[in-house]
Amino acid sequence: MTRTVGIIIFLLCLNCVSWVVFRLNGGVETSLVRTIREPNSNEMTYLIAGNLNQPLSAFRFLEPELLGNETYVNFQMTGWSAKRAAEEIANEVIAEDFSRVNVYAISLGDHVSRYLEELIGGRCELRIIAINHCSDISFVCEPFNTLLKVFSGPFEVLCHALGWFSAIPFIPAQDGVSKYSMILLADQYWSIAYDRPDPSVDHTIGVICSQPDKGDNDGLLENARIRDYF
Fold first, then answer.
1. What would the DSSP string read from start to end of 46-114?
2. Which pLDDT does position 149 carry in this prediction?
């Protein structure tokens, strides 16, 4: 019995440690999926979705306007880092020598855009369209603002303690088909609460989509504060 318990404890520790090592060595990379319609074009459009969504479903409304080349920035079930995603995009822009880059970002996806302002703002003609952007924790209404600050950290710790089990997708996404993992959700919540990218908006146009009867507060985001930011 004692030996069995020891083996179980060892396996749980191995699960946790191997997971942390994996995460530290690139486990939070994103997946860049291209659609090429104009192979000779030097322009690329990047689509970045928000919480509990992926770009293919989030930007379906934009499909009639997407007539050139675009890249869907897909989240991975093993986690998410806005800075790492921006670095991957920036490396591709530099490697492919794109002269014009368009970025459409929704909600917390705009964290990636903030890093892109810094990384490639001076390297190409950059245009960012931020939709209902959650670029800063101050944009989030109460009590969600406080809840994110208090619980996102412990949630992140719990996911690391669970190890590889935290990467199992079972949380329903907004499209009603996809599933999210706990660690992906934890990374996104932690980013909203504590990630602080450069606030530069030199290349950004902010777009607020809200219901007229809700005014400057749509229940999750404080639109008046967003309007002041941009």
1. EEE--TT--HHHHTGGGGGG--S-EEEEEPBTTB--HHHHHHHHHHHHHHHT-SEEEEEEEGGGHHHHH
2. 93
Sign of torsion, CA 132 178 86 84?
A: positive
- Please, how many CA atoms are within 13 Å of residue 134, restricted to the half-sphere of its CB? 26
Specify the higher pLDDT residue, 209 or 196: 196
The predicted-structure confidence for 129-184, as pLDDT tens digits, reads as follows 998 888 888 888 889 999 999 999 999 999 999 999 999 998 887 666 778 899 99
Determine the 3-state secondary structure of 25 from DSSP.
coil
Q: How far is CA 224 from the centre of its chain?
A: 23
Structure tokens at 87: 């670095």
Are 30 and 24 in contact by the 8 Å Cβ rule? The answer is no
At 22, the amino acid letter reads F
Peptide bond before residue 143 is cis, with ω within 30 degrees of 0: yes
Non-local CB neighbours of 112 within 8 Å, separated by 6+ positions: 48, 73, 82, 85, 86, 89, 103, 105
- Asked if pLDDT for residue 213 goes beyond 60, the answer is no
